[in-house]
Amino acid sequence: MFEWNWNSIKAECVAFLGPAGYGYVQTSPPNAHIVGKQWWTAYQPTSYDLVSNRGTREEFIDMVNTCKTAGVQVIADAVVNHMSGASAGTSTLGTNFTHYDYPGTYSANDFHYCGLTPDNNIADYTNRDQVQKCQLVGLADLATDTDYVQGRLADYLKDLLSTGVTGLRIDAAKHIASSDITNILSRVGPVPYITQEVIYGDNEPIQPSEYVANGAVQEFRYTNTLKWAFTEGGIDTLQDFGNRGWLDSKSANVFVANHDTERDSSLNYKSAMNTYYLATIFSLAHPYGANPTVLSSYFFEARDDGAPNNWQGACQGISGDKGWLCQHRWPGISGLVGFRNTVGDSEITNWQTGTHQQIAFGRGNLGFVAINNESAQWSAEFTTSLPDGSYCNVNGGAPRDGCMGSPITISGGKFTANITPRTALAVHVGAMAPAGL
Ligand code: AAO
After folding, report:
1. CA-closest candidate to residue 208, choices 258, 257, 244
2. In terms of DSSP H, where are the helices of 292-366?
3. Alpha-carbon distance 182 to 144, whole Å?
4. Where are the beta strands (DSSP E) in 305-357?
5. Measured between alpha carbons, how far is residue 66 from residues 10, 25, 59, 339, 341 in Å?
6. Rounded to an integer, what is the distance from CA 175 to the centroid of its chain?
7. What is the value of pTM for the model shown?
8. Ligand 1 touching residue 201 (CB < 6 A)
9. In this predicted structure, what is the pLDDT of residue 406?
10. Counting CB atoms within 10 angstroms of each CB, which of 9, 167, 385, 403 has the fewest?
11. Is the Cβ–Cβ distance between 130 and 157 less than 8 Å?
């Protein structure tokens, strides 16, 4: 829930996320940061007080507890590689800082001065020392290899856990040696879920696989490959991710877009011809990536555009296409959350293709999905391993009050369908059509 404030997430856990079956909600960074309206101010910490543009410590704790009661655990985005990029300023807490001095938290000897580039900034991603000891885009680089910094970061993470948080996203993990993260986490104790941002780059020495001992790792090759497949390569190339040299499925945190890639490189809500929606349906239906993430974000014109409406996430009531996008509520996305919860880790069965941009597959005998990423209708007979019966098409959303659209009748494992251009169909045993439909 990129940039949503705590009160809004709290309300959304009860109103939608819990009932739809989302297991976790990931928040933007909760700690104090530089002031400003740009979204990325959140990625320039000034201290570990939980006072941000998104709310106070009390509001954060209230949100975490309410979400947990609604069945949704909370992942906090932990910015632990660096402090601010400013030479001096005031924080969201109202205190003053300079680039290498954050009174009460860090002072000059807690930072790396890499001395490897003229401005101490990373210039060459093929140089491991630069990536881990120089400054990422001018952000004061914490000496995460020192006892004090490791202890201070562990204290912050312990404090987050004490609020009830059970998951952490480790921001810019590539810029911290994996062994330093291991050390910090050993001081924290068990953390139920960790995902680390380690962007795979061609010819870079630091590999995502170095980090799996600490928890899940974000697999950006998946993000890039989905864009390629849905826009040019063909989605019939996406049956198997097992032998590409990527992260193992159980360690891979996958997504169609995150808050950076939606601005820079991946499919996003502006993508033509429904490819973003269909790719998200695919990522929830396909078993690769034990932990798929759905981005919920907001309309933007320029890269830096900050959150609308004073960070007050809302899915209704603010002028439609200029506000919060609420992707987590899109019927096909929330419907596929129920699909994924039902099919669990079942293997792919009954893989079928039409053209290169038309695929269908089952998940054991529990679910079946067909994706038509083609500008023509896909009329076919599909073979499934599902029990005979009448199913709701959950691409229309969760069937709380009956199916949206006509039910799909499976007989002898088979059904026929006319799938309209650029749409999908998904059925599972947890969403049978009510009798009489
Ligand atoms: C802001 C201003 C800056 C200013 C700075 C300091 O924009 O102009 O210098 O303040 O005053 C966010 C924003 C930044 C913002 C920053 C701080 O994105 O614009 O800077 O907050 O406010 C690298 C890191 C990765 C990082 C990414 C942005 O490895 O960790 O850069 N992401 C996280 C967050 C992000 C945040 C920060 C870190 C900082 O998710 O929101 O920044 O806390 C290659 C490398 C990657 C590298 C990228 C971009 O990736 O491999 O490691 O990410 O380049 O430099 C293909 C290639 C792949 C390539 C990718 C690029 O996929 O295969 O190699 O394309 O798109």
Report:
1. 244
2. 331-343
3. 11
4. 348-353
5. 6, 12, 10, 25, 22
6. 19
7. 0.97
8. yes
9. 85
10. 385
11. no
